[in-house]
Structures are given as C-alpha cells and as structure tokens.
Amino acid sequence: MFDNLSSKLEKAFQTLKGQGRITEINVATTVKEIRKALIDADVNYKVAKDVTDEIKEKALGQNVLTSVSPGQLLTKITNDELTRLMGGESVDIKLEGNPSIILIAGLQGSGKTTFSGKLAAYLKKQGRQVLLTACDIYRPAAINQLKVLGEQIGVEVYAEPENKDAVKIAKAALEHAKKNNHRIVIVDTAGRLAVDEEMMKEIAKLKEALNPSETLFVVDAMTGQDAVNTAKAFNERLNFDGVVLTKMDGDTRGGAALSIRRVVEKPIKFISMGEKMEALDRFYPERMASRILGMGDVVTLVEKAQEAFNEEEAKRLNAKLRKNQFDFNDFLTQLEQVKKMGNIKDLMSMIPGVGKAMKGVEVDDNAFKPVEAIIRSMTAQERENPDVINGSRKNRIAKGSGTSTCAR
C-alpha cells in the first residue's frame, strides 16, 4: 500500500539534500516532483494541484532553523497537507437509536459483505450486541457468505432467503433486533451501479424506510480514481455519512484514499485489508500521512499489540524470561498473539525506517507454520524442558512435523 508513492515522494525531497535554505527555485523543483508523484498515484489532478500549491505557498519564506534542514521542513509541511487532504481528524461512526442501524452500500465486488462481517466483529469486541442482516437478494451466495461470516465471529445473521423484498427483510430484522435486545443492526445490501436506476431506487427506499444512524459507502481502493467518481455519484443519491476503503493490501496506488475526502466531502471512516475478520482499522489521516512519507505508524502498532496481547499474560511471560524459564509453550503463545495482529509485512512497515528497508522484500505470513508444527510435534515434557531434546528426539520431532534435522 502506497509503496510507489512513498518512494517517489522520497526522491522528491532528495532534491533539497545538502541545501542550506528554502528558495523559490528548489521549492518549485520539489513541488513539481510531489505533484507528479500524486498524479502517478491516481490522485485527481485538481486535488494534486491544489495540495502542491498549498505546500509551495507555506514553504516559501519559511525560515529554516539550524537544526532543521530544508528537506525536513518540506517533509513536515507535506505531512500536514496530506493529513488535511484526508480529513485532518479521524471520524467515528454514529451509533444512535435503539437499535442503531448501519446501512452498507457500494458497487458489486467492492467487499461489502466481508466488511459487514468485519464491522460486526469490530463492534462485538467493544461489547456491543450486533445483528447482521442479509438484504442482498440478487447474488445467490450472498446470504450464505454472510451466515458463514456470522458463525465465524459469533454474531447472529437475520435472513429470509425466499423473500425478494429488501425493504421488508430489513424491517423484519429491525423488529427481530428489538425483541432480542440487539443494540446494533448492520444491513448488508446488494451491489449496484450508479447508472442502474431501479437498483439505486431500491437503496434509496431502504435508507428512507430504515432512517439509519450511519450509511457507509464501501469502495474498492484498487479502482483508484474511478472509486472517487463512483462515490460522488452515490453520494448525490444517498448522501452517505462515510467511506470505507477495502482491499488496501492489494495493488493500490492510493489515489482513492488521497482524493475521496476532498472530492466527496465525506470522511473515510475505515480501511480494510485482507480477508481476516480482524483486518479492519479505523482511519486516522495523520497516521496514514506518516506512513505515506515513510515515517511509520507506531501508535497503530501499539494499539494492535494492546488488542492482541493480554496484559497479565505479558507480565507472566516477562517474569519467566527474567528467571530464564521461557519454554516452547510460551514461545507458541507469543507466535499466536503476533499472528492476531495482522499481516507481518504491514506490521513491519509501521516501524519507522523498516518500511523503506523492506521495500521489494516479500514476507510470507505462513513462515511461522513450520515452527508451529515442530513445537506441536513435541511432547509436553520437551516443550517445558527443551534441554531434554537429544538426537533421537530431534529425529522423531522432525518426522512428526514434516521437517528435517540440520547438522551442526
């Protein structure tokens, strides 16, 4: 995500390397490269021009402190402008009413159903009672997909497979939620094109009938500038409350994330990466800007660690490490907790400087599996007392885990 844009922005700032002060010439050269990088990332041309004009205006006339280089100063200004471009501050979803209703809309194949499951898991983790509602009456596998996701995360799914009226299904789900004490109802709808008048009328009727506290428009980030144009068309009909960018782990240039707020004037509220139900993050413009500029995102990394790691368990393991009693059971527990945090490469990119060093390096998320297989092939005694593992035990463990022993 944003790898290409990050490298091009880095090259743009290198034009100021070794220069002692900001001048109109060196700023103009750098700003030109920044604009090219943004346009290459599929950012709307007008948006790219407006942003770079603002960067240029703020940079010119700035007095550079002896401890700050012109490159560092322009990086700071660019970071501020990118943050402002993407909304400035994070905006949370509105949960009003009893129950609160969240209506999900978007194009076909944008990832609405998967996002609905992820959002349900996200809200359930906060201790909320959630009901998923299957209102995609056109795609044959949509209801089954939502039921599978609901079972996976332990959330009830309301569906009427024989009913072909999305509004009636949604209203019935609302009554079911009230009777069964569900505080939040997430309504997954069918994918539709903005040019399909009948389908657009249906989603408009759903919104009018439900009066949701939150209407979220789900966008496939890989569609780039097309995503912005589609969001604009949907917003004119639905007046949605926020945007969700999916498939952010794919081959995306980032244009949608950088343009959509300025063009549609609606906040990005979530970003979704991968198929795992935990792979959903609230969108923070300042953190995303830092990642784009290669400065990492330590705050998000810490938050993910806090979610995945139990504090009492961490204290227990720390005490065992201090006493030199850390065993394979503890190591396996640590591996499982790290995996819960998400994609390893994405996690490493949040560490300042590491993202740049990892450019072009592929990190296989399955790399831990052989290690886990080895540990699980050990006896309880061997896990707790690694010192007892001799040559014959190694051979048995290797056979059991499908690996081989290595000669010292």
For this entry, what is the oligomeric state of its chains?
single chain
Number of strands: 8
CATH class value of the largest domain: Alpha Beta
| CATH fold field value of the largest domain | Rossmann fold
Number of domains: 3
Q: Any idea what the radius of gyration is? A: 25 Å
- Numbering strands along the chain, what is their spatial order in the largest sheet? 3-2-4-1-5-6-7-8
Q: Shape from CA axes?
A: flat
Q: Mean pLDDT, nearest integer?
A: 80
Q: Can you tell me the CATH superfamily of the largest domain?
A: P-loop containing nucleotide triphosphate hydrolases
Tally of alpha and pi helices: 19
Tell me the major beta sheet: 8 strands, mixed
Strand content: 5-15%
Helix content: 40-55%
What's a quick, concise take on this entry?
With 408 residues, the chain is an alpha/beta fold.
Write out key terms for the chains shown:
alpha/beta; 3 domains; Four Helix Bundle (Hemerythrin (Met), subunit A); flat; 8 strands; 408 residues; Rossmann fold; 434 Repressor (Amino-terminal Domain); single chain; 10% strand
What does this molecule look like?
With 408 residues, the protein is α/β, with parallel strands linked by helices. It has three domains: 3-85, Four Helix Bundle (Hemerythrin (Met), subunit A) (Up-down Bundle); 100-293, Rossmann fold (3-Layer(aba) Sandwich); 306-401, Signal recognition particle, SRP54 subunit, M-domain (434 Repressor (Amino-terminal Domain)). The protein contains 19 helices and eight strands. An eight-stranded mixed beta sheet has the order 3-2-4-1-5-6-7-8, with helices on both faces. Strand 7 (268-272) and strand 8 (280-282) form a beta hairpin. The protein is flat, with a radius of gyration of 25 Å.
